[in-house]
Amino acid sequence: MAAEGSGLQRELGPGPKPDALCPEHGQGLGWFCGSERRPVCAACVGPGGRCRGHRVRRAKEHAEELRSTASAAREVVIQRLSLVRSLCESEEQRLLEQVHGEEERTHQSILTQRAHWAEALQKLNTIRSSLVDMLTHLDDHQLIQKEQEIFERTEEAEGILDPQESEKLNFNEKCTWSPLLTQLWATAVLGSLSGTEDVRIDERTVSPFLQLSDDRRTLTFSAKKSKACADGPERFDHWPNALAAASFQTGLHAWMVNVQNSCAYKVGVASGQLPRKGSGSDCRLGHNTFSWVFSRYDQEFRFLHNGQHQPLGLLRSPAQLGVLLDLEARELLFYEPASGTVLYTYHTAFPTPLFPVFAVADQTISIIH
Q1: Which positions make up the signal peptide (predicted)?
Q2: Helix, strand, coil % (nearest 5) of the chain?
């Protein structure tokens, strides 16, 4: 039997002589067992070997296949990055051309307006001189006879002062809006948690209907009002809300929230002026001028602000929700990291300071860090 095994080993051959040896037979690992996904020796694949009957091949062939697979994968990466780079360059060119066109349009509008007002001033000076001349040189009887002319001159002067398409003098910032750029920007910021803030809940603000975890990142809803919470001016006493401990005045900020366990929550930002006491809309997130939130209730998703509800037709419930706040660009963005989908964007001149804000009325939500 041993002679037969030795003959088969000679037939198979030892293969290349790698540095590592088989711990069982002390031979070179010149073969690869596809069933066990590990390198083996000729004795392992021979009669009586543990890999007898398995899918085996020479290690060199397997290594060549791996190199070929890696090379193909590398080509795919290069091709896709090249396509993304080309797309970004085209979008950059398009946006810059739009900005330049809007800049030129605004500049021409300013020149047109300047010419208009120069002409208007000349007309006003002419009318003024005419009226001064009448008042200086005409007696009372003559002034009465000139009443209609004076009235017409005065009415003409008032018409000259009417605004002339002044809205065209404003730079239209919509020329810089790009769904592609927004999605790539959101993916770049939220694609890695290293770009997100270390947001934690301010325990002084937590509603008595919520429980806060020890690390101050998880909020759990409780239908029974807790009596352990000491009331204070910062605490929400009716709605299940909580504010983050840190606020933002300027710059770009991002954070992510795990919302997969809750069917009723709100996530967004709120002004420090948001009232805390009572059951009125002034304390309810999204129902006042102090808060801007993404809201889920059962299978309804909405953006809420100042009592205005913007329905969001989502095809599925996001497990995680990313929030980007760019105070310089005056933009608030909600994003689903798993699919790279921008769920909603809102533009306004936000008051500062702004706090991340949370509400939960079912199960738990957690800030990811």
Answers
A1: none
A2: 40, 25, 40
pLDDT tens-place string over residues 46-97: 998 999 899 999 999 999 999 999 999 899 888 878 877 888 888 888 888 8
pTM beyond 0.85: the answer is no
Q: What's the confidence (pLDDT) of residue 1? A: 39
pLDDT score, position 18: 46
Residues whose CB falls within 8 Å of the CB of residue 345, separated by 6 or more in sequence, listed in order: 182, 331, 332, 333, 334
Q: Dig out the tokens for 135 from the structure.
A: 């008042």
Residue type, 59: A
Burial class (CB in 10 A: 0-12, 13-18, 19+), 81: exposed
Extract the runs of DSSP E, i.e. beta strands, from the chain: 31-33, 38-40, 56-58, 210-212, 218-221, 241-243, 252-258, 264-271, 291-297, 300-305, 308-311, 320-326, 331-336, 341-347, 354-360, 364-368
β-sheet bridge partners, residue 241: 359
- Other CB atoms within a 10 A radius of the CB of residue 211 amount to 16
